[in-house]
Design brief:
Layout (H helix, E strand, L loop, with lengths): L12 H9 L22 E2 H8 L3 H5 L1 E10 L6 E8 L7 E10 L23 E9 L7 H9 L2 E8 L8 H14 L2 E2 L6 H15 L4 E4 L6 E2 L2 E2 L6 H97 L1
Antiparallel strand pairs: 1-5, 2-3, 2-6, 3-4, 4-5, 5-7, 6-8, 9-10
Helix pairs in contact: 2-5, 5-6, 5-7, 6-7
Length: about 325
């Protein structure tokens, strides 16, 4: 398989215009957890991120249009993903989130030099995994500058694009990430480390959403100093668990929707007497108005008839007077 060098850049009119216009476009504020206002990016546990998406329907509906597979090029050669989500209504807006697995130990009280993730030596006791997603802020510097600041020197190994008709939603991605954390909550250097996490997320999304275009950029995935790193093979199992979890989620959504519809129906039923009374009052008012109009029309008709009769009587009287005058002239 041929790999493109990182130095090769493809010109894109869309990306060029986006780079120019980006500083002038305000970041949406109605999709928390995906779009973040300016400030220091916050690393969010994937479980908390899943809960955060419930606070806004727009957040849950953001669509994953691109993924990028990243790898640090120094020290532990940490691997991570970039997730590009497009806003469901403000279509110009795209948020880029970083996704990674580290371990909970040593993440408090010790710095992450140049943004490198913590990887520890094999330990007898398991270490809790720390799976985090980080919404990047809407700032003027490029995403590559942000990644360098966060992770240090790095390269990109793959790009994956989903067509508009087959993009995973942020909610679907969050459920998959929760499944992974539940599947392997412990960080194990020789099985469930950052290599396993990035690889499994990547391959699971490819399997679950097969309409995609993948482009290789560089070699080195799941390798340390050029040597392959042992990791668990969990893609098929994770996909099965995701499908079951997504089915439960959809069922729960359906139940909440039915409960809401039932509540609205009951509310309408409780308000029905008032609605019926208002309808009767409207009908009574309309009836009285119609009767008044009818009476007015009848009065107008009677007045017209009386006027017609008067006019006919006057005309007959005038004819009689004319006849009598004619008779008098004849008698004379």
């Amino acid at each position: 398989m041929a790999f493109k060098s990182k130095s090769v850049k493809r010109f894109s009119v869309r990306n060029f215009l986006a780079a120019i216009l980006h500083p002038f476009m305000s970041s949406p504020t109605d999709a928390p957890g995906v779009f973040t206002p300016a400030g220091k990016p916050s690393h969010i546990d994937v479980g908390l991120w899943h809960s955060l998406l419930f606070t806004s329907e727009l957040s849950a509906q953001c669509k994953l249009e691109r993924m990028v597979y990243g790898k640090c090029t120094i020290e532990f050669e940490h691997e991570f993903l970039l997730l590009h989500f497009r806003h469901p209504t403000q279509h110009h807006a795209v948020a880029i989130l970083t996704l990674e697995r580290t371990c909970a130990e040593n993440t408090t009280g010790s710095s992450r030099s140049a943004g490198q993730a913590v990887i520890v030596s094999p330990s007898v006791s398991p270490i809790t995994a720390k799976d985090t997603i980080t919404p990047t802020t809407n700032s003027s510097f490029t995403i590559d500058s942000y990644v360098t600041q966060e992770f240090g020197p790095h390269k990109y190994l793959f790009e994956l694009d989903f067509p508009a008709s087959a993009r995973p939603s942020a909610m679907q991605v969050s459920i998959l990430l929760c499944v992974l954390s539940k599947h392997s909550p412990m960080y194990e250097l020789l099985q469930y480390q950052c290599y396993w996490y990035a690889y499994t997320v990547w391959e699971a999304l490819k399997k679950l959403f097969p309409e995609h275009v993948e482009r290789p950029l560089n070699e080195g995935r799941s390798r340390f100093k050029g040597q392959p790193i042992k990791k668990a093979e969990s893609v098929n199992t994770v996909c099965e668990q995701y499908r079951a979890e997504w089915a439960r989620f959809e069922e729960a959504v359906g139940e909440r929707r039915r409960a809401k519809e039932e509540e609205e129906r009951r509310g309408r039923a409780q308000r029905q007497p008032e609605v019926d009374d208002e309808r009767r009052q409207r009908e009574e008012a309309e009836r009285k108005a119609n009767e008044a109009d009818k009476k007015a029309n009848e009065a107008d008709k009677r007045a017209d008839e009386e006027r017609r009769q008067r006019e006919e009587a006057e005309a007959e009287l005038n004819r009689m007077r004319a006849r009598m005058a004619e008779l008098e002239r004849c008698a004379a």
